Amino acid sequence: MRIFVLTGAGVSAESGLGTFRDKDGVWTKYDLNEVATPEGFARNPALVRDFYNARRVNLAGAEPNAAHVALARLEAVLGDDLFLCTQNVDDLHEKAGSRRVIHMHGELAVTRCHHCQATRPDVAALTAEAVCEACGRAGGARPHVVWFGETPLYMDAIEDALAQADLFVSIGTSGSVYPAAGFVTEARAMGIATCEINLEPSANAYVFDEKLYGPASEVAPAWVEKILGEM
Ligand code: OAD
Predict the structure, then answer these.
(1) What is the CATH number of the domain that holds 97?
(2) How far apart are the C-alpha atoms of 201 and 56, rounded to whole Å?
(3) Which of 65, 107, 193, 218 has its CA 20 to 30 A from that of 125?
(4) Per-residue pLDDT reduced to its tens digit, 174-208
């Protein structure tokens, strides 16, 4: 059985990383237009770098929870038959042992040069003074994170994997940011079974065949055990 799993901020919430749209979520405290758009970066790069530097500090102290661990266990059994696509820019799936994670919104622990687009693993603070090792220019350091108005990464591989899946499972996402929010509708149109795991019904809840509600750290491991038991 081929399974496509899409994860969102809810899968990392119990690891202490804030979600975006819940009460007290990141976008209730920050204006996403100022910190998560190319225009915001052009207007005030220092503000944007400070925002992501704080998130890098939070990430350094975060540990995977039982949901990440369960998905790593599922990959250990299914291998390439599990396609794990995350909207999260954290590295908690990898820290839990997942080896094939597709980060469609990029990665916080990677720095990209705004001038030449070169990327490199980096968890240090982003600064205006940093000189790009690839092009030699300063002032271009930004997180390798997909901002609003930018195109998500790996879309061809994602669409291929979705088309080949037998089951589409969404875990911990509000279903409000496209294109990820549209995957369930695409899956349904292709006759693929669909399942939502979330704290509460998402914006797309009505589209899913199966719905499992509760904390991801409890519901996701139980779901993985059920799938493995059926194999
Ligand atoms: P949201 O913050 O929009 O939604 C988080 C979802 O997780 C909500 O539906 C919550 O109910 C659910 N949730 C919260 N705690 C949970 C828990 N313990 N267990 C299970 N579910 C829980 O986050 P995303 O949908 O991931 O993009 O947001 C999508 C994108 O919007 C992000 O990748 C980010 C953001 O702006 C960019 O920055 C480009």
Answers:
(1) 3.40.50.1220
(2) 30
(3) 65
(4) 999 999 999 999 999 999 999 999 999 999 999 99
